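Task: sequence design from structure.
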């Protein structure tokens, strides 16, 4: 009887996978042909979300939940998916992930964050629903959550692996047939109507096979967790060393990286994963080094998170909130709850980190609540970011000339576009700048999203931004007097565009014509050097460049400052073809460091 039930469940799962594949191909074909429903964002995005996630939940639920419970759960999941998708379209940040809009017009798909975080949301929610239904309780035991979540994770992982292996075999078969001049399989593998249904059906098949072989899944899980747990002592040593160096190195170098918060969050997440790999369900026999390492790691998470909170706070104070910073703050909120709970567990010496069971369960509920808030109007990161940037502009914390219109247009969604419309009616002393910037950004085509905004600016005094070498050498008057604000910022170093930019200026006759040229190398971010020369009209422009590897080489720059260099003729002369010079660039020999 059980085998018969298993066969029926398998047939149902394969049918679901095939139906999912056929419907996804229908959406793909509609997108390819710019036909309905791909042309309607409020239809296309919800359909994609439902067809990508809902069938996986159904396949996983069959055989474990009664039909009534399956119905309740899937209806609830469907409502959440529709809310997420409709809000994603409404906020105006959905994207063209299937096909580029420059080729196929008006083709819509969910935004990347929605796809990523919806998968995380439903993984957690599905594991909690399955565990609760299995035990007949609303909140299951920690062991139930542990077994269900890890089984689901391994099922998904190996199902992806199975699909990849299947197509690898199909590709090999196509190559074998090509040896005898038969192209049918290769041509078949190039057809989306074949690939999409096969992927979905194979995925459902793998989900079923891993579901009916729980012993194999449990063995893989145990092996994986044991291997991960032995990485824990290494991670503890590294994180401890990092924290111990902070009092001596200070935090300045940390902030200059501009991605300190992200690195710290990754470190905290790694510690959380490794601690749970060692802890497992709380009943595993764990070696003493791992027990010490897990308890130490539980203490280390909080200081790592505190540094991350401080780093994010500095960015918010300096530049205000953005959507990315709101997401980082939400992540910090969740990890702070973990950190406090794990610290409490670490000081419970009578038990082997048993409070983790309570912390993990209730923080999982917090994760679901946070994701619901972020992807609904409750705490939309785009809205918070736009409001913060507009408030900074109104309070004078950012100058009108430096205001980031690009952020409002492409990261603020409907909120940003509404703010730009408001700025087109700006009044006051900076009204002209704000109106021009807002109108230009609103008129910009969506395909130019990834083009960075370019401004033409210059500091009040270029001379104040230059450290001249040889010391005391006169910088050509025409170079200092030139109106550099007519040159776009992406075509000049920061010392010619902002007050904060600083450069080393090397004055020497580079071409032997008796007139000095000026080589500029930025002091902080040496992405390369630019050699400026004066043309016949008295205008200074870039005549040559210095490779970024040389500009970033401190020993080389130091020798330039000391004047320890000579001018040498190039090894190869240039080719002159039809009146045009074509240089022959010599190969750079491999060097042990930047000055050898």
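Answer:
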């Amino acid at each position: 009887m059980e085998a018969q039930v298993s066969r029926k469940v398998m047939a149902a799962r394969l049918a679901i996978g095939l139906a999912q594949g056929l419907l996804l191909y229908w959406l793909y074909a509609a997108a390819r042909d710019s036909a309905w429903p791909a042309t309607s964002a409020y239809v296309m995005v919800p359909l994609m979300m439902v067809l990508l996630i809902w069938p996986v939940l159904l396949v996983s639920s069959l055989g474990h939940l009664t039909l009534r419970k399956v119905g309740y759960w899937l209806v609830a999941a469907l409502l959440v998916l529709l809310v997420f998708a409709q809000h994603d379209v409404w906020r105006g940040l959905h994207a063209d992930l299937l096909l580029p809009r420059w080729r196929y017009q008006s083709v819509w798909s969910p935004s990347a964050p929605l796809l990523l975080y919806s998968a995380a949301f439903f993984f957690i929610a599905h594991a909690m629903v399955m565990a609760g239904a299995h035990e007949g309780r609303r909140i299951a035991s920690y062991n139930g959550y542990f077994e269900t979540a890890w089984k689901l994770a391994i099922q998904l992982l190996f199902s992806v692996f199975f699909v990849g292996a299947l197509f690898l075999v199909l590709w090999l078969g196509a190559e074998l047939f090509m040896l005898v001049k038969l192209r049918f399989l290769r041509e078949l593998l190039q057809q989306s109507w074949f690939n999409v249904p096969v992927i979905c059906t194979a995925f459902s098949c793998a989900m079923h096979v891993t579901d009916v072989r729980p012993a194999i899944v449990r063995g893989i899980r145990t092996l994986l967790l044991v291997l991960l747990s032995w990485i824990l002592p290494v991670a503890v040593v590294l994180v401890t060393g990092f924290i111990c160096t902070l009092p001596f190195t200070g935090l300045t170098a940390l902030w200059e990286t501009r991605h300190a918060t992200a690195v710290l969050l990754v470190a905290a997440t790694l510690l959380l994963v490794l601690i749970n790999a060692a802890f497992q369900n709380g009943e595993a026999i764990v070696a003493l080094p791992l027990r010490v390492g897990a308890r130490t790691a539980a203490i280390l998470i909080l200081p790592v998170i505190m540094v991350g909170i401080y780093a994010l706070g500095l960015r918010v104070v300096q530049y205000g909130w953005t959507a990315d910073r709101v997401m980082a703050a939400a992540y910090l909120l969740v990890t702070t709850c973990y950190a406090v709970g794990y610290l409490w567990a670490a000081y419970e010496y009578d038990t082997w980190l048993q409070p983790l069971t309570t912390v993990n369960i209730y923080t999982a509920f917090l994760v679901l609540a946070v994701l619901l808030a972020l992807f609904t109007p409750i705490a939309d990161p785009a809205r918070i970011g736009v409001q913060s940037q507009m408030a900074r502009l109104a309070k004078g914390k950012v100058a009108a000339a430096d205001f980031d219109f690009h952020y409002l247009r492409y990261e603020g969604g409907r909120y940003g576009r509404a703010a730009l419309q408001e700025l087109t009616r700006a009044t006051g002393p900076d009204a002209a700048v704000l109106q021009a910037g807002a109108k230009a950004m609103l008129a910009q085509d969506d395909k130019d999203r990834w083009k960075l905004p370019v401004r033409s600016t210059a500091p009040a005094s270029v001379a104040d931004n230059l450290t001249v070498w040889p010391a005391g050498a006169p910088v050509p008057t025409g170079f200092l007097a030139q109106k550099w604000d007519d040159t776009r910022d992406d075509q000049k170093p920061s010392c010619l565009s902002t007050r904060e930019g600083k450069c080393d200026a090397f004055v020497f006759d580079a071409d032997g014509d008796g007139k000095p040229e000026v080589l500029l190398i930025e002091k902080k971010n040496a992405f390369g050097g630019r050699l400026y020369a004066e043309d016949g009209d008295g205008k200074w422009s870039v005549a040559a460049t210095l490779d970024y590897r040389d500009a970033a080489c401190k020993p080389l720059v130091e020798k330039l400052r000391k004047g320890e260099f000579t001018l040498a003729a190039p090894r190869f002369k240039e080719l002159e073809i039809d009146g045009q010079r074509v240089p022959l660039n010599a190969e750079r020999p491999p060097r042990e460091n930047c000055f050898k």
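Residues 295 and 347 are 8 Å apart (CA to CA).
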